[in-house]
Amino acid sequence: MRSSLVIVGAGPRGTGLLERIAANAPELYASSGDGLDGSVGSSVGSEGLDIHLVDPYPPGGGRIWREAQSPLLWMNSEAQDVTMFTDETVDMAGPVREGPTLHEWAALDGRVFADRQRQGTYMRWVYEQTVAALPPGIRVHHHARRALRVVGPREGRQQVWLEGRPRPLQADLVVLTLGHLDAELDQEQRELAAYARAHDLVHLPPDYTADSDLSALAPGEPVLVRGFGLAFVDLMVLLTEGRGGRYETGADGELTYRASGREPVLHVGSRRGVPYHSKIGYDWTGERPPLPRFFGPGEVDALLARPGGLDFRRDVWPLVKKELGFAHYHRLFTAHPERTDMAWTDFEEKYAAGDSAEIQALVASAVPDTADRFDPAALDHPLDGVRHASYDELQDGLRAYIEGDLTRRHDSSHSADMAVFLGLLSVYGQLVRLGDIGSWWHGFFSYLASGPPGPRLRQMLALSRAGVLRFLGAGMTVEASDGVFRAGSAGVPGEYVEARALVEARLPHPTVERTRDSLLRELYAEGAAATPEGLLAVDPADGRVLDRSGTPHPRRFALGPHTDARGSGAFTRPRTGGPAFRQNDATARAALAFLRALSCSAAA
């Protein structure tokens, strides 16, 4: 009987796992004489392996990166920074199989932000190449359906039930690579939705913007938007260019927006009140900071060995903050020494030995300009204490802030910012081992390291000047009363903006209890463990699903953002040791070793 592996989710994570299976199968599943590598004879695994990919969306891109979406929506990374292939920087047991980045494959300028359709085409190509690279005897079957539930004994075959299919798939192993999931509304969102229905208002809850029905947002009407991250950028694009507006570039290089007349007026705010920082617009030159320095494998080992659990702010953040500061000052002192008052060797020695207060005093004495100092609190709350007399005045202030951010992020004299970016990548790779560390870090990382392309912020400024986009500021509040939605902010105390439409511009947060994915919800109901944040708990070594006693399930694995081993993305920048690649390799090797042992047992 042929062995069977079911992978639920055929997007980048499922494709990445399949690539690692193809890379590792010659060593771990095929062997001389088993027929899988083209040799003659029969032994282990001679019956072969069926891999079933279950996803209603096309393999490769999946839902988020499918080719069938608006060409106006861009990647959030430069084409040179997107790869699905491993290199020698990935800490893994399996073989490296290099391949082209997006810009190499598509023959694009590496600095271009490609559209998501093209990324979807790249992902489809990666999938097709991966399937072609599988040893003979391993077959892939795509089922364009939703997986509804998984049942079966711990020591026996699993049954994966699919929507609209009368019989389940039989699986020796199941791997969940589900990607981003929809969620049932939380209490606040249910109340706002009910209020909208009762008063004939429009309320769009958290969603993947490309899938949202925006037709109810009427031309010329005010729309309150809560959320200033990447989901807002997509919303902005679809409601402006997507409705026929266009940009013109003046002789001075400034953009002017020409409205179509079909746009609503967007009033946007958030906790911070500002968009995510622009992508950095220059290349790295010179010496890289030697990372990790203060937050590496040894520090993570020590944290994991602590009894009684971890508190991120108390136990982890001080180490992370010191690591990011080290990256910042290493670059400042080595690349821009004229802006410092101390030799790097002296500063480094004192920095390494100092606690938080001592480092603060050291920086004050060695770095004269406060703009050259690393201040994560100020970065996280850029508008703290900033007040305006009116919303008109706030518009000028926010435009000045965005213009300043664009200037700085495209000026290599501030290359310490890029060093912090490299520090963030290093830290993220270590934090994966700690499991669920709460939501704050992921938001902070995205705000600093995963912001929009610079051209998007220039478009934002043009829309603001055209009056299509209005800023609400920081500390945004929303209430539903008097038959409307009403928004205020800390930036203009006592003033409010009213509208008959409210959009929550962010992805949903699908805990295992509130996810709309019935398979994941049933796994939790049957005893799978979850973290306090509602993430599925998995074994960090190989991704096996844990039960509430901490025991790994022998036949069920999970990878991706719905788990406590979530990485920073299913694809990553080349030569940065992508944590997702490391996880994919570990899971692929564990799965192949299990299937081989099962095949040996059956043949005995």
From TrEMBL:
<dbReference type="InterPro" id="IPR052189">
    <property type="entry name" value="L-asp_N-monooxygenase_NS-form"/>
</dbReference>
<dbReference type="InterPro" id="IPR036188">
    <property type="entry name" value="FAD/NAD-bd_sf"/>
</dbReference>
<protein>
    <recommendedName>
        <fullName>FAD-dependent urate hydroxylase HpyO/Asp monooxygenase CreE-like FAD/NAD(P)-binding domain-containing protein</fullName>
    </recommendedName>
</protein>
<feature type="region of interest" description="Disordered">
    <location>
        <begin position="550"/>
        <end position="580"/>
    </location>
</feature>
<dbReference type="Pfam" id="PF13454">
    <property type="entry name" value="NAD_binding_9"/>
</dbReference>
<feature type="domain" description="FAD-dependent urate hydroxylase HpyO/Asp monooxygenase CreE-like FAD/NAD(P)-binding">
    <location>
        <begin position="6"/>
        <end position="180"/>
    </location>
</feature>
<dbReference type="InterPro" id="IPR038732">
    <property type="entry name" value="HpyO/CreE_NAD-binding"/>
</dbReference>
